[in-house]
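Is this the right way to post structure tokens for a design question? Let me know if I should format differently. Anyway, here goes:
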């Protein structure tokens, strides 16, 4: 996500490295690179110019503290302005009402129907709402079928009527159905077009007037960059939506749409799609996105994802086992499966400060753990509980059963022992303090 933009920002800040103070000359040079980075990311020219002018004004008017280098101060100012550019604070979705009504709009191919399913899943699992999905795309029968498949997969009811050809009537009937059956939220999926046209705009406007939604969302493919911003403006002028959803952000190395939409349309980005799975949906946090753009990672989101998979009782049991030196391959496998549930491994690694750049050219498959799982599943229950039993003949059997090599088995056994030692060490607060002091002492070393 935003790889190209992150690289270019980093190059821009190098101009100030080793400089004793911020001057008009070195600021101008840095901001020239920043503006070029934003334009290359397909950010609106007016937005890029206003951004760099604001940063310049703030940088020249601020004293550099002795504890902060000019480069660090410039990063801080750019971070503040990026956050402001993307909206400042996150904006929650409005689902109040009886029921709360969410109207989806957007072009065909933007991922609107898929997002409708994702949003239904988010409201059901995270907000604990009883959700109804409504299929109002009368032009594309596959859209109705797609929504039914998603609804069945997620355990969410879908309202549709293939006999009715008036989307306004279907939307009204869906809302009435939601009221009569006690649904708390109804999400209306509407038709898209390959391009902005008056007929589609009039149709969505008519649906909006008829059902008076509590929330109207515009869904757009972030990878279309400036086109996404222009389309958003055209839709907003006609239907005055409440918020934007950026889909396919995981494949967007530039970031132009995320950086431009708020300033051009003056509507907040509320959600981002970060993958194909139904749980690959994140609330849009401008400060966390600015962290990622500037290569600072996103530790808060990483912790939140971990907490979603966290089981307090299981964690207590695991801690006791670590203290007693009883950590085994069953525990190792359980931890592995929890990490898998958190999402794409490369995306998770990119949330750790400094790791985004290191992982840039590393290709990690979604099923990166399958070989490790195959090896563990090929062990007997006794071998999992007591890895010390695994001798050469057992290694041969496990390798044959898992379709791996002896080298793979040896590598996993070493990783397991290293993990076991580290977990034992970290479970003792005194050891943790000692490790932190060691890291503090290593700060001056190259690469630290």
């Amino acid at each position: 996500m935003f790889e190209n933009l992150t690289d270019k920002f980093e190059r821009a800040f190098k101009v100030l490295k080793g400089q004793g103070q911020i001057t008009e000359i070195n600021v101008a040079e840095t901001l020239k690179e920043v503006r070029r980075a934003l334009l290359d990311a397909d950010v609106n020219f007016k937005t890029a110019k206003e951004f760099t002018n604001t940063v310049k004004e703030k940088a020249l008017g601020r004293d550099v503290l002795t504890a902060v280098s000019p480069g660090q101060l410039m990063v801080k100012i750019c971070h503040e302005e990026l956050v402001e550019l993307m909206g400042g604070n996150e904006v929650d979705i409005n689902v109040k009402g009886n029921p709360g009504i969410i109207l989806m709009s957007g072009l065909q191919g933007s991922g609107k129907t898929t997002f409708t399913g994702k949003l239904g899943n988010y409201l059901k699992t995270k907000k604990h709402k009883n959700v109804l999905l409504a299929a109002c795309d009368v032009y594309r029968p596959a859209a109705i079928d797609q929504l039914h498949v998603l609804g069945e997969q997620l355990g969410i009811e879908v309202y549709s009527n293939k006999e009715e050809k008036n989307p306004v009537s279907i939307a009204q009937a869906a809302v009435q159905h939601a009221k009569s059956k006690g649904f708390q939220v109804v999400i209306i999926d509407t038709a898209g077009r390959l391009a902005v046209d008056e007929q589609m705009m009039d149709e969505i406007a008519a649906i909006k007037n008829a059902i008076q939604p509590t929330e109207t969302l515009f869904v757009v493919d972030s990878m279309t960059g400036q086109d996404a911003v222009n389309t958003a403006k055209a839709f907003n002028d006609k239907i005055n939506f409440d918020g934007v959803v950026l889909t396919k952000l995981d494949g967007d190395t530039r970031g132009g749409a995320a950086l431009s939409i708020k300033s051009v349309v003056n509507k907040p980005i509320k959600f981002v799609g970060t993958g194909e799975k139904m749980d690959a949906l994140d609330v849009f946090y401008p400060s966390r996105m600015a962290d990622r753009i500037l290569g600072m990672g996103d530790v808060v989101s990483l912790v939140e994802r971990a907490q979603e998979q966290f089981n307090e009782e299981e964690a207590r049991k695991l801690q006791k086992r670590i203290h007693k030196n009883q950590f085994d391959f069953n525990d190792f496998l359980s931890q592995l499966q929890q990490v898998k549930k958190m999402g794409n491994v490369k995306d998770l690694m990119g949330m750790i400060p400094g790791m985004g750049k290191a992982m840039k050219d590393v290709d990690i498959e979604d099923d990166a753990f399958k070989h490790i799982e195959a090896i563990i599943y090929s062990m007997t229950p006794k071998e999992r509980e007591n890895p010390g039993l695994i001798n050469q003949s057992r290694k041969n059997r496990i390798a044959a059963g898992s379709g791996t090599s002896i080298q793979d088995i040896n590598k996993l056994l070493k990783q397991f022992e290293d993990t076991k030692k580290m977990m034992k060490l970290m479970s003792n607060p005194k050891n943790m303090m000692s490790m932190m002091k060691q890291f503090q002492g290593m700060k001056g070393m190259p690469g630290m």
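Format looks fine. Someone answered above. Worth noting: The longest strand covers residues 100-106. The chain has 21 helices and eight strands.
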